[in-house]
Specification:
Blueprint: H1 2-5, H2 17-46, H3 48-61, H4 66-72, E1 75-77, H5 83-90, H6 95-100, E2 104-106, E3 113-115, E4 120-126, E5 132-139, E6 149-151, H7 167-177, E7 180-183, H8 186-194, E8 200-202, H9 210-216, E9 223-225, H10 231-235
């Protein structure tokens, strides 16, 4: 449209079948992630297990309001290792995209698919445009053998080194303040947003990467690090 208006000749290259398929697959992954984020939140609010386990954790232990929970899309993945998977299939989603997004994984023993995030409270990870590219799942179990956090693996749409948790919600405030506050975890970001400090993002751990700094520099050149006061945070 702009080219036509200013008399510029734009030569468009036709996409190859391989490029078209790749774009379609990426879009399918985005659609599945968005559906899953809504599913996790509905399950938390509407199912007895979701309310007693996840909603009580977010509201009572973390002090998050319903408005904050809805804003960040928080939810819960059912404790049954197949419930979410079966509901995805019933909704028409294919196994290949459950695997490519990392929402499911294949067991080595028998090749069967299992829910990656079963029995975990869920934090959707949005890219700078607001699309869900991955998830972080936190267990509420005290069993030391169970990893505290389970994150989406790298995929066609998710690269941990290039994403900052909360940036989609924080970018306007970062530009207004001309400063970004960098914290470690999901809950740190959400707590500060709820308290009215919205120019906050998380590196999802302590390994701040060059790609994350480059992404942030689109909105400000100023950064304040507020990592945890433990040994790992101090070292980072």
């Amino acid at each position: 449209l702009l080219a036509k208006r200013y008399g510029i000749d734009v030569k468009e290259e036709a996409l190859s079948e391989e490029q078209i398929e790749r774009n379609n697959n990426r879009e399918s992954m985005f659609v599945l992630n968005e559906w899953s984020a809504n599913y996790f939140q509905r399950y938390m609010f509407n199912e007895a297990e979701g309310r007693s386990v996840a909603l009580s954790y977010f509201s009572s232990q973390r002090g998050f309001s319903d408005a904050t929970i809805h804003k960040f899309g928080l939810g819960f993945c059912p404790s049954s290792g197949l419930r979410f998977l079966e509901d995805c299939r019933a909704a028409g989603y294919k196994d290949e995209f459950l695997l490519s997004t990392g929402l499911a994984f294949q067991r080595e023993s028998d090749g069967a698919l299992r829910d990656r995030f079963y029995d975990r409270v869920m934090f959707p990870i949005h890219n700078v445009s607001g699309r869900v590219v991955g998830f972080g799942g936190r267990t509420l179990r005290t069993d030391k053998k169970v990893a505290k956090y389970q994150n989406s693996p790298e995929s066609e749409i998710y690269n941990k080194r290039r994403e900052l948790y909360g940036l989609f919600f924080a970018k306007k405030a970062i530009q207004q303040e001309d400063c970004a506050i960098m914290v470690e975890g999901y809950a740190d970001v959400i707590s500060m947003h709820q308290a009215g400090v919205e120019n906050v993002v998380a590196s999802s751990g302590t390994s701040l990467t060059e790609e994350q700094v480059r992404l942030l520099s689109r909105f400000t050149r100023n950064m304040t690090l507020m990592f945890d006061g433990d040994a790992a945070g101090v070292k980072a």
